[in-house]
Design brief:
Rossmann fold; binds S-adenosylmethionine; alpha/beta
């Protein structure tokens, strides 16, 4: 099922809209509906949008113009480097037992994010930036301490952090 944009998506979308991102090429990892890729395309010439979920890929492909949309399990099918990589990941504790999940980020909620972070540098141009999001419902304290907090938002359920990898 294609992820319906929520407060997490809005926080990242607003950051991309309100800040100079100074990137000619961007990768939207886990694009879902394509909301972040669309924002990136307003500022960057080249945007790739990937998702593990074939339904999301189909949904985004039908709605995004001028963006290269394809299926990829994290970086499995990504073949180039970018100036900016952003991932609003499945960030809650839970095992992804299906072929696609929009919320389950692993037992502690951060395993998929850590896999992303461990690989992302290899797809980043020199001087590029990596943006991602974590929830305080996950085991995210260390990630919050070790990276730069760009923005936060919260509701009764959780506090979300938009982070830039250091
Ligand atoms: C929280 S949703 C975010 C969707 C959209 N970027 C947004 O901000 O509204 C997480 C997305 O990551 C995708 N995803 C989950 N595991 C993935 C993986 N291993 N590789 C690529 N995408 C993945 C999900 O299918 C989902 O579309």
């Amino acid at each position: 099922m294609t992820y319906k944009p929520g407060k997490d998506s809005m926080m990242m979308a607003e950051y991309l809209e309100d800040n100079p991102i100074e990137a000619e090429s961007c990768l939207d990892m886990g694009t879902g509906s394509g909301i972040l890729a669309k924002k990136m395309r307003e500022k960057a010439e080249t945007v790739h949008a990937v998702d593990k979920d074939p339904e999301a890929v189909k949904y985004a492909r039908e709605r995004l113009d001028g963006i290269n949309v394809y299926r990829s399990d994290l970086f499995s099918e990504v073949e180039r480097k970018f100036d900016l990589i952003a991932f609003n990941p499945p960030y809650l504790p839970g095992e992804d037992e299906s072929d696609h999940s929009d919320w389950a980020g692993g037992k502690n909620g951060i395993e998929l994010t850590e896999r992303f972070l461990n690989n992302a540098d290899g797809y980043l141009n020199k001087g590029g930036r990596i943006l991602f999001l974590v929830s305080d419902r996950a085991d995210s304290d260390q990630l919050i301490q070790e990276n730069r907090v760009l923005d936060t938002t919260h509701d009764w359920f959780e506090k979300l952090y938009l982070l830039e990898k250091n």
